[in-house]
Amino acid sequence: MDVKDMEQENSSNFDLPLEEIIAYNDLPTIRNETEETIAAIKEDGYDLNEFYGIRHMFACYNFNNLEKLAIELFNKFGSDLDLEDPVEEIDEDTNKPIYCFNAFTEHKLDVEEIMAEAEQIVALCNACAVMYDGWGSNVDDGEEELNDEQ
């Protein structure tokens, strides 16, 4: 399904109340999961001072909101964030179409560095009514993904 098809089908979607999206995008929870994920990576012996690819994940029932977020992310981060094309999936909990995309960057696995970026991203997600679905990283050249998905 291409972007035009997603836009046309968007009218059949439903929107979550903004309060639910903001509650889902809870920064203290994201920080806690980030700390746990990075501690587990360190415990597995990975060098936290190396740069790793970070994948931020987004989801929304309203394609237009997701598209708005992509534009806002590009305006805020430019080429520092690589955006994937959106995909349509079926949410197993609601049995409704949900639109998703990922954005990629590189960081050392440092809680403060990742959280500084996540805080900016979550603010944009809240403004666009999009769920921030956590971050992940392939620490072993793509063999194993460790992540902090909510």
Quick gist of this model?
The protein is of the alpha+beta class and 150 residues long. It contains 5 helices and 6 strands, in the order αααβαβββαββ.
N-end to C-end Cα span? 26 Å
Helix content: 40-55%
One letter per element, helices H and strands E, the order comes to: HHHEHEEEHEE
- The proportion of strand residues reads 25-35%
What is the makeup of the main sheet? 6 strands, antiparallel
Secondary-structure-derived class: alpha+beta
Assembly of the depicted chains: single chain
**Outline type:** globular
Key attributes of the depicted protein:
alpha+beta, 6-stranded antiparallel β-sheet, globular, disordered N terminus, 150 residues
How would you summarize the topology of this molecule?
Elements: H1 3-9, H2 18-24, H3 27-43, E1 51-60, H4 63-77, E2 82-83, E3 87-90, E4 97-108, H5 111-128, E5 131-138, E6 145-147
Antiparallel strand pairs: 1-4, 1-5, 2-4, 3-4, 5-6
Helix pairs in contact: 3-5, 4-5
Architecture overview:
Helix 3 packs antiparallel against helix 5 (111-128) and helix 4 packs across helix 5. Residues 1-13 and 142-146 have low confidence and may be disordered. This protein has helices at residues 3-9, 18-24, 27-43, 63-77, 111-128; strands at 51-60, 82-83, 87-90, 97-108, 131-138, 145-147. The two termini are 26 Å apart. Strand 5 (131-138) and strand 6 form a beta hairpin. Strands 1, 2, 3, 4, 5 and 6 form a 6-stranded antiparallel beta sheet that branches. By secondary structure, it is α+β, with helices and mostly antiparallel strands. It contains 5 helices and 6 strands.
